[in-house]
Amino acid sequence: MAAPTVLITGASRGLGREVARRLVEEGFTVLAGVRDPGTMKPLPGAEVLPLDVCDPASIAAAGASIRARHGRLNMLVNNAGILLDSSEDALALDPVVLRRTLETNALGPLALTQALAPLLVKGSRVVNVSSGGGQLSAPSNWAPAYCISKTALNAITVQLAAALKPRGIAVNAVCPGWVRTDMGGPGAPRSLQQGADSILWLVLKAGPDISGGFWRDGRRIDW
Ligand SMILES: NC(=O)c1ccc[n+]([C@@H]2O[C@H](COP(=O)([O-])OP(=O)(O)OC[C@H]3O[C@@H](n4cnc5c(N)ncnc54)[C@H](OP(=O)(O)O)[C@@H]3O)[C@@H](O)[C@H]2O)c1
Q1: Which is the CATH superfamily of the domain at 5-220?
Q2: pTM of the predicted structure, to 2 decimals
Q3: 219 - beta bridge partners?
Q4: 79 lines ligand 1 (CB under 6 A)
Q5: Which of 17, 85, 127, 146 is catalytic?
C-alpha cells in the first residue's frame, strides 16, 4: 500500500518543521509547504512545496502540483501562523494587523482546505493548529488579533468538520501548548518535541471517528 501523503503548512521552521520531520520518520510521504523554499534549511526526506497560505494563486498551484504528483492527500496540517500583536490590547488593535492575522491564521487554512478537499480521501484528517489563546472559555486581553484569529479558526474547524463528515474526513483543532519556537520565544515551558506531540496525536493516534473537537495532548479542551 502507498504511504499516506501529508501536507504541512509553515514547515520552514518551528512546529511545522518538527511535525514534518517526525512524519518523514513515520514513513509518510511528506509535503513541506513553505513560503520561500530558497531560504529553508534542508528537510531530508520531505518534498518541498512552495505555498503561501494568503495567496490564492499559490494555493491553486500547490493543489495542482499535489494532484499531478500524488493524485490524492491523506492528511492536511494547517500549521502556518503569525503572531504580530503580543504587546497590544483590544483598544490599541490596529485593523491592518487584525486583517493580516485573520488572513494567515484563519482565512488561509479555510481557503487551502477548500482547495484541497477534492483530493482528500475517505479516512483523511485535517488538523488545524490553533491556540489556547482562541478559547472563548478562557478570556484574556493578550494579543487580540492573534486570539481573535484562533477563535475564528476554531469556528472554521467546526464548520469544516460538519461539511466533511459525510465523506468520512475528520477535522479537528489542536493547541500545542506554549512552545519554544520563534513565536513562543525562549522562555516557553514546552520543547518543540512536546508541542509537536500534541499535534501529532491527531495525525497518528486519534480514533478515526474523532472530529469537530479542540485538543491538547490528546485530551479535549473547551472552546
Ligand atoms: N509556539 C507556541 O507557543 C504556539 C502556541 C500555540 C499555538 N501555536 C501555533 O502553532 C503554529 C506554529 O507556530 P510556531 O511556534 O512554529 O511559529 P513560528 O516558529 O513563528 O513559525 C511559523 C511558520 O508559519 C509560516 N508562515 C507564516 N505566514 C505564512 C504564510 N502566509 N504562508 C505560509 N507559511 C506561513 C512561517 O514561514 P516563514 O519561515 O516563511 O516565515 C513559519 O514556517 C502556529 O499556527 C501558531 O499559532 C504556537
Answers
A1: NAD(P)-binding Rossmann-like Domain (3.40.50.720)
A2: 0.98
A3: 216
A4: yes
A5: 146
